[in-house]
């Protein structure tokens, strides 16, 4: 009994903060909570949920590996009579009891608008992406939509950089190929921080501005101290985790909960 | 004297099994005991079904891998083949194909990828490690092209049923594992083809001198491996209702670990399907049991590594003692 | 003569074979007739095995034609050769160590129904084959557990197990065998001949050749020299044709007197035992003495030598120069200046992919180490070249991979490797296996020379004339025990009696 | 005749180089030409520095891997060792250690992990593939314990300088690659230790009979591999200003690919550091060039696989033709 949580990964500060907040809230409200890590593998997430079912948890909190594919996982839990709450990534094609998460598309739009403002409405920008993750795809789409409304801003390169090391190489190579890039949008903090390193090592600190997404502590510090990092779209995993556990407790208690609990992302541009 | 020996062996098949698999069987039993003591829900029929379904994907891929390793080769591309198979099915359904045509197409895709690995290895004489590292990337790239990296849903009810329904009280997925185990076991241990695989893996030159068409054996075995991986991919996509572009990533390592735990020698020439099945069970039970005990993820990684080391060590030791 | 030409079964015309720039065969000719044993004789590296591998479909001739049973013959692979009724017992063992004798003998010919193997029938068939051939092997044993000689018997059984052969090729089948098994093989060949099967036989043992052959063809440097009928030729003539000069003796005389019995032994072994393999083996050897070891297959000689060399543990005491010595590993043994020319050159002796030079220097690397462990490459090369010319190893250069040398030349490379360690005690396990008469003589001369310089030599051999001809004293082993220690003048009959255990 | 040959070879060291590395050198040059034609910025000094810095991590790990493969073994744990090294450094700095103590500690950590791999392989006789699959998991678990999976920042300015500063006009990181290349090359090709490694890898049993302490060679080599991986980890953490818990994931495959592209045989006994360096360059240039041409990620995977296949094939073919 209690809450079973299956999280996408444990190697990213966002998820660590999310998990920590959930644990803290669960301890505060004295409900049992177990956390399993899917390690970005939907099959592992399914296995973890199956094991939760055998163990007999009351409610499952999921941060889906992928919004579409998680349907199989959710249906399995629901068939076993367990209610499911999703956090961070929504599930598509299946009803869940509640979804708590950032509006990634809106965040992407904000990033695009910030970029346009920083560049004075004209210049060339590059994107570091991660095409297999739906929430990232939404951010990139939002960013492109916002940039598309500024005629004089051009997206000249888009490369994949999943880990920080890959993002660094991708940023370096894009700067090498397009030395006149003025802005880089990283799909997450890692990508943005790596891009800032690349900018520095290319000696382009006075030309290129970098914007990130997630807004964890390291990135916010960078925004405060590193002029290249002009801003970061901020998510609130602590709030998300707390709310997920509270919602789960309400569900166990048989209370009604809202089907969607969007958390508006913030824009952090320094102290 | 040789006759005597033979009769005794035939009279006690269990003794033989114990002699051959004693080391890992001990590991398996000890694991089960530990988990049962620590969580009473572990030793339930429901959980056992659970474990079997969870290992299905790895076990089937490991059957294919056993063939390849037996030959002294390796196939690192199976994780990617698993993903391609799922995506091929999803795209076929999108294109309006029915269940059977899609099934056949998916299996053919697996066979074709295995054929590519086999031909590059056997005919061009490239080392299979590097061939399959390369095709691992190529197939992983291919799987992402139709959807640009996004997953594709599968709606076909028959396809979904494979992973969800039961037949005569057992989940279909478990039936499939059983059937494929028997198939591979018989093919390997009872037929001339299996014998040729052992000879080729044991001493390639000797096999050539004995008139075995080594290239053909090699290509066939890579095709078997491709087909097994495709079946794994079918089960996986059916369990997940969808084809994921990152499906099966690094499953090749689990498959190899299962085969080697089961006594298959990476030098070639030695190995059995029974061993591989036990190896896959150890891996599956370890994952499941640690989840049941709520062991945190990173500690799971550590424990899993230690258990693999311990099991292989016990096995090596028990085999050495017998000499 | 004209009647005889009509039963020519195999006709080789102008066959050449190039390995890159190396011409292994140049315009070879050969005619083999049914029901006769045709021996190929030639120095190491003359091209005999290469020709046989072409006939077996393993290699393909660069130029030339072959006619077999009246039709053109150009096998693509060993199956096609077997399908035409040609079978071969390879010189280099081609067995799968991790499979049983039965599985090896009937490889690709397993009794099966729709591809399903009948394992009982397989073992029964193999046991029958082995029994019919009269070979003492347990067919359910794994080949990896057998000694070299036993593996050679398995190889023979495998080669002879095809149903109706027209031509049987035996490439140095007796190089690891003792007389007892050789006799069995000869009676098998006799039966084949009687059935009208043609046999091509390759060996370096002259007595054997003179006993067995009907026709003898000499080849030299890949070229056909001449064919003679056995009745019309002598050993000396054959050797002269083969090496291009006359040789008067086979065993060179010892240089100087044998060490006196009163002299202290350099090595003395007391009660050496290992469960199930040998027991209570005691002997001693003095400086400059050649101590021969004779015994039948599996009598345990090689295992005793392995124990002396520290490869596998054994109980008992070993003294060197009178001091007790613990030899727990080859490192210890080499440290005490013991050298060991093993019987299985492919697995225990050589790194086949590496150059002749690297193989020759591998046991004496310390000699070529300068400060900080740097290799003295020039000294190494000089030493390798010296050994190559001293032992007349036939190789394009010292950079050639040792695996592409002919069998006999590989054997010489192993010898060279150990001579370079300048041993005080030299163990030779079948040192002339597959070596031609000319080279054998050279090796014997080197052994004599080493003995004269004070090296103690343990000479294990399955060739009775060799042990008798070379040893100062002779140890005979039977089923893991010492059955006799004889002086140099022992008769072959006496030695055989001890070896077979029929003396009491 | 043998003399003649030798003199010619000595007179023309380039000819020898070309003979040995012709196949992959062609691939390298062709790649460079293609990329230069398609993007004029490719052939600039700045970009070349770029590529060298980007391959540093893989190249150094690949030097270690070359030793291991030469021995006929494999080390799949190096990706995890890279991560552990970075984390060890970050934690040491947090604990208040200075630059030098931290450096020594990190290298010792690498050596210790290599020692574990070596002892398990050599002394317990377990297959290195399974040993290092297990330790890959164990080390990856360990790296995550101090921060529970989060990255750790590194603030030490000297440490950061390694990845950021230059020395006599060349980035320090490139100096490190050059020094380590020379060190490994000399150790392998000019010393008795290197020769023992070749011989052990070529035929273990013959090496034992020849008085080579193969266990000691094996353990030493796994330690070299661990230390090289630790140095890779130092460079990586210095370039990223932080220790990432997922750092180095699957770098072992790139390192193996570099070594095998460079002609190292997975069967053991054959290989050189020069070859590995060229192999690493091919991989690095491919990644860089395709990024510069804005090739989408999935196509990059496919092209990379195809180029590896092509390069290995050219190499195998050119070697075969010489026989
Ligand atoms: N695969 C190969 N590659 C290169 N050279 C080879 C190869 N096989 C044989 N040779 C060369 O061909 C020549 C003939 O070798 P072959 O093995 O036929 O000699 P042989 O007469 O059987 O000698 P032996 O009595 O020692 O067995 C030798 O010089 C050998 O080095
Ligand atoms: N009858 C047998 N059946 C099976 N294995 C045997 C038999 N006799 C001996 N062996 C094995 O063969 C080896 C002993 O032979 P060893 O090589 O020491 O003998 P040898 O006197 O050198 O004879 P050989 O000429 O065969 O080398 C041991 O490994 C032993 O276990
Ligand atoms: Mg020969
Ligand atoms: Mg012997």
Specify Rg of chain C, calculated over alpha carbons: 23 Å
Estimated share of beta-strand residues of chain C: 25-35%
Radius of gyration of chain B: 20 Å
CATH overall fold name of the largest domain in chain C: Rossmann fold
The set of bound ligands, ions and cofactors reads:
adenosine-5'-triphosphate, magnesium ion
Number of domains of chain B: 1
Biggest interface, CB < 8 A: B-D, 45 and 45 residues
**Main sheet of chain B: which strands, in order across?**
1-4
Determine the fraction of residues in helical runs of chain B and give it as a percent range.
Answer: over 70%
Global geometry of chain B: globular
**How are strands sequenced across the largest beta sheet of chain C?**
6-9-10-3-11-12
How many beta-strand elements of chain C? 22
Shape estimate of chain C: globular
- Briefly note the structural class of the backbone of chain B: mainly alpha
InterPro entries (chains B, D): ABC_transp_permease (IPR001851)
Pfam families (chains B, D): BPD_transp_2
Protein name (chains B, D): Ribose ABC transporter permease
Main location (chains B, D): membrane
Task: Summarize the structure in short.
The complex is a heterotetramer, with 1 copy of chain A (271 residues), 2 copies of chain B (323 residues) and 1 copy of chain C (504 residues). Chain B is mostly helical and 323 residues long.
Polypeptide structure, described:
Chain C: Pfam families: ABC_tran (PF00005). Chain C: Keywords: ATP-binding, Cell membrane, Membrane, Nucleotide-binding, Repeat, Sugar transport, Translocase, Transport. Chain C: It is found in: Cell membrane. The complex is a heterotetramer, with one copy of chain A (271 residues), two copies of chain B (323 residues) and one copy of chain C (504 residues). Helices cover 45% and strands 23% of the residues of chain A. The mean pLDDT of chain A is 92. In chain A, helix 1 (13-28) packs across helix 9 and helix 4 (104-119) runs parallel beside helix 5. In chain A, the strands form two sheets. Chain A has a six-stranded parallel β-sheet with strand order 2-1-3-4-5-11, sandwiched between helices. In chain A, strands 7-6-8-9-10-12 form a six-stranded mixed β-sheet, with helices on both faces. Chain A is of the alpha/beta class and 271 residues long. Chain B has 323 residues and is mainly alpha-helical. Chain B has a single domain (54-318), classed as ABC transporter involved in vitamin B12 uptake, BtuC. Chain B is 77% helix and 2% strand. Chain B contains 14 helices and four strands. In chain B, the strands form two sheets. Chain B has a two-stranded antiparallel sheet with strand order 1-4. In chain B, strands 2-3 form a two-stranded antiparallel ribbon. In chain B, helix 3 runs parallel beside helix 8 (172-190) and helix 3 runs antiparallel to helix 11. Chain B is globular, with a radius of gyration of 20 Å. Chain C contains 18 helices and 22 strands. In chain C, strand 19 (425-429), helix 16 (437-452) and strand 20 form a beta-alpha-beta unit. The longest helix of chain C has 16 residues, at 179-194. The N and C termini of chain C lie far apart (53 Å). The chains are: A alpha/beta (271), B mainly alpha (323), C alpha/beta (504). Chains in contact: A-B, A-D, B-C, B-D, C-D. The structure holds adenosine-5'-triphosphate (2 copies) and magnesium ion (2 copies).
